[in-house]
Give the backbone structure.
Amino acid sequence: MSNTTGDKAVQKSASVLEKLNLNERSWKFYAAASIPPVLVAGLALWYYSSRTAEPTKKDDKKKRSRKSKKSKKGKATDDSAEEKSAAASTASLETEDAPENLTDEQIAALDQAELVKLGQSLKSRGNKFFQAKRYEKAIELYTQALRFAKDPVFYSNRAACYAASSDHDKVIQDCTSALELESRYVKALIRRAQAYESTEQYRDSLYDFTTACILEDFGNSLAATSAERVLKKLAEAEAHERVQKRSPRLPSKSFISGYLNSFRNCGDEAAVTDGSVLCEADALFNEALSFTALQEYSQAIESVDKAVAAVEKTDGSGVLRAADIYSLRGMFNFLKSNLSQALEDLDKALELDPSHVRSYLRKANLFTEKKDLDEVSRLLKQAHEVDAENAETFFQQGQVHFLKQEFADAAKDYERAAELDPEFVYPRIQLGVVQFKVGKIEQAMATFDEAMKKFPTRSDLYNYYGEVLAEQGGYDSAISAFEKAVELDKTNPLPYVNQAISLFQTSGNADSALTLIRDALKVDPECELAVAALSQIYLQMGMFEESLTMLRRAVDLAKSEEEMVSAITFRETTAAQYRFMKEHPELLNKMMAGAMQSA
């Protein structure tokens, strides 16, 4: 469940995947998620036992079954001396009787044993030229060796020469040939993955590194760290490109509602007392507030845009709510992640009315998104200076303390906010959460009990109470709280999703969980949490195509670049593992059988 409940204002950049404990995970977690645990556990055991059971074919076969990470401690310390020795040894190799001089007809007349012997001889000579960094000659010898035997080692060794020359396309070609002969050849997989990475073919690179990790039960540190690096490059590059290209858009209705709930309201309606008619700008502002209350956010934005135009047309003359109009538009631009325009709007609101507290708070939310907590603190201080008794300011300040894990200070601010406005429910919710966080369980229960008595019809209160109970392991009580939340408000998708997650985690009841999440998506088709939860449940059920569909949707719905990186990360690791399962079914079947026998 979520680490922070109630306020979405200071957590807008937190990924919905975090609610499912999928954020801030290591690459190994993501990679292992889509392979059944018994398969991952048994894969290396099957791989190594099967390799040692095969007939030994010279030292190159032994090398192929080793892990690709080799200890550097056994390496000769004097590299230059080694190179000189290798260079000296190649001199005699230039003139000796060489099998590469044989014609194709002569080679065709050789028996299998002779072919293997001569191919190995050429490979050994190629190795010495490679050590001497005479790559062209080494390539020539490995190429000749391939005339005698299509051995994956010969291809891989020639690929190493091409890699040293940065000829990445030929590296990929030779490693592919090696893997066609032996699909479990980890050294070739890693070498090809490195070439893919060098040519910015990150998805193919990730797949090869992932395959190498699975084959060695995630024990190959080179493959694992490389996969993390490539995955980071892939996710960050795609996320940055997507964010740059897409137009500002609103997040889901449930997200917007959560944000709005961190304030008492969106503003007070403009009203006249002398019987005169409201000006156009004020009338449009009131219209925007009405649409917002109805969760018709697109219409609200249209109205507030018209209100701004009306203010500018009259230079604000006779407008009662000019600062509120710019502040409301700034809020919507913030929600659309159009931060530059949001900042411009909020600054204009404060220019028109330097005492407009809500604009300071909305601006603080914006800088929280930017992770500039020093500026957030400065803005909250300004808000306090304007109105030292404002409940919203204390609540927002408490949220900043909460983010910084300063729980004692957060609790004080929540308590003060609740005192200043007894009808403001969210300070009570967050106070209960903090008390749970610091282990004051009885106090937390009392805080929630008091809140539920005072606000018996607040669906969101029961939903957040259920989240806290679930986080503490009280799933039965949590499910009851979620059911109550749904009963009170069937248009809120979050309790449906939370109930589904709790059911699935405790009973594995996938059918009920899927029904609840689908109900949530009927209520809010763009609910980020519902999409993320559905992808995870599909994944646990082995429904990879369906899971990937939802993960692609999660990427589309991500509000920030940071969230998008997280969603892409999970999508790509799932896709890589699924590709492995499709391309290596025989390997998985053998591994499963081996795991069962060893159990």
Summary: The chain is about 70% helix and 0% strand. Residues 1-82 have pLDDT under 50 and may be disordered. Residues 172 and 482 are 53 Å apart (CA to CA). The radius of gyration is 32 Å.
